[in-house]
């Protein structure tokens, strides 16, 4: 039977395993909104069960985190983690002062909210980061995502919104948002076989919760969200990329790892819905925020690799120039490398030598040591 390469086609789209099911779900919600309820049972559960699927996803994600990371991984991953979350907190504080919990209701920036910006900035695309570092960086930098994966989930977004002075979340909700991740970490670090078993489920869960998230979206706002999403994606790369670049340089890197982390994870599109479920105050902002973050995933997945490749090319060119300069300094000059000629082997130029008939002459080629009468010339 002929094979149709569906998976390959989906993966050609940046963040495809998240974006494509999300769009399919939103198409059904827009043009056939009653379809899931009409069929009911498991079909309805598949389109409405985003939260249970996400809970399982975070358990599996936590199992893949190794707490026994080497000091370099802790230093590198910790620096990038703190820098990116710190940038999101700063953006949240500034925007929270002007916007509060609700999105902008009219004008060119209608739909933008503090929730959308913080959710887009808080989470790094782990698959994209590791792929870029595998191509342009060091193997040690790939493992730094072990620490950065702590960004996953709504916990840090809740903390950021609280720090920004917006509606706070009760402590049981905060603990509950990170508990599945913590349980997964415990299982994965106590038993390597559990880590391997649960870790394999992480990519499998993504399209399922993306489909359920899309089923709650209205595509009538997609064009507006797409334009704003492009702007938000560029803002994420620039606003987080600059401090990440310098954080990488300060920890002994070349800046490539910082550029590779300046993007948005696909599962970040689920965070606004989780925040709204935890605190209904954000319900209105979550509607547009989900679309904006989804668009941001695509934009950063395109722009971040271009920026990373550009920085890597410049770093390599600078390294090659330095190596060439060092090679020139280490290689002696041609004159200095020529061995000195022994004095005894040098021809005697301009020295007067006596002939047997008593007449002196200049010899410029043969040394004076030559004896005997000169040969006659014909």
UniProtKB/TrEMBL annotation:
The chain crosses the membrane at residues 12-33, 45-65, 77-98, 104-121, 142-163, 169-190, 197-217, 223-247, 259-283, 289-312. Residues 332-345 have a biased composition (Low complexity). Residues 322-331 have a biased composition (Basic and acidic residues). It is found in: Cell membrane. The keyword Cell division does not apply. It catalyses: 2-dehydro-3-deoxy-D-gluconate(in) + H(+)(in) = 2-dehydro-3-deoxy-D-gluconate(out) + H(+)(out). Residues 322-378 are annotated as: Disordered. Catalyzes the proton-dependent uptake of 2-keto-3-deoxygluconate (KDG) into the cell. One of its GO terms (molecular function) is 2-keto-3-deoxygluconate:proton symporter activity. GO terms for cellular component: plasma membrane. It is a multi-pass membrane protein. Its main location: membrane. Keywords: Cell membrane, Membrane, Sugar transport, Symport, Transmembrane, Transmembrane helix, Transport. InterPro entries: 2keto-3dGluconate_permease (IPR004684). Belongs to the KdgT transporter family. It holds the Pfam family KdgT. This is 2-keto-3-deoxygluconate permease.
């Amino acid at each position: 039977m002929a094979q149709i390469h569906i998976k390959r086609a989906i993966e050609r789209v940046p963040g495809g395993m998240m974006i494509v099911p999300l769009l399919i779900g939103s198409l059904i919600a827009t043009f056939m909104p009653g379809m899931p309820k009409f069929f009911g049972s498991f079909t309805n559960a598949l389109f409405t069960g985003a939260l249970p699927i996400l809970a399982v996803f975070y358990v599996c994600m936590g199992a893949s985190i190794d707490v026994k990371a080497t000091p370099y991984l802790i230093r590198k991953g910790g620096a990038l983690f703190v820098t990116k979350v710190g940038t999101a907190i700063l953006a949240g504080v500034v925007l929270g002062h002007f916007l509060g919990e609700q999105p902008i209701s009219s004008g060119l920036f209608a739909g933008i909210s503090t929730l959308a910006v913080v959710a887009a900035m808080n989470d790094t695309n782990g698959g994209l980061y590791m792929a870029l570092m595998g191509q342009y960086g060091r193997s040690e930098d790939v493992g730094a995502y072990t620490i950065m994966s702590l960004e996953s989930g709504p916990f840090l977004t809740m903390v950021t919104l609280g720090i920004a002075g917006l509606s706070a979340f009760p402590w049981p909700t905060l603990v509950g948002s990170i508990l599945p991740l913590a349980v997964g970490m415990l299982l994965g670090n106590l038993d390597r076989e559990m880590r391997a078993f649960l870790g394999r489920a992480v990519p499998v869960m993504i399209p399922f919760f993306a489909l359920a998230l899309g089923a709650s979206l209205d595509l009538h706002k997609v064009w507006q969200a797409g334009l704003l999403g492009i702007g938000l994606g560029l803002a994420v790369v620039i606003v987080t990329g600059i401090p990440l670049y310098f954080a990488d340089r300060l920890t002994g890197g070349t800046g490539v790892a910082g550029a590779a982390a300046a993007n948005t994870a696909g599962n970040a599109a689920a965070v606004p819905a989780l925040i709204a479920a935890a605190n209904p105050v954000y319900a209105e902002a979550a509607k547009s925020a989900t679309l904006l973050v989804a668009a941001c995933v695509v934009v950063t997945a395109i722009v971040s690799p271009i920026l990373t490749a550009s920085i890597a090319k410049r770093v390599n060119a600078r390294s090659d120039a330095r190596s060439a300069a060092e090679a020139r300094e280490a290689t002696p000059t041609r004159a200095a490398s020529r061995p000195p000629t022994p004095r005894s082997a040098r021809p005697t130029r301009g020295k007067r030598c006596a002939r047997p008939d008593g007449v002196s002459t200049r010899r410029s080629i043969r040394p004076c040591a030559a004896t005997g009468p000169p040969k006659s010339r014909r």
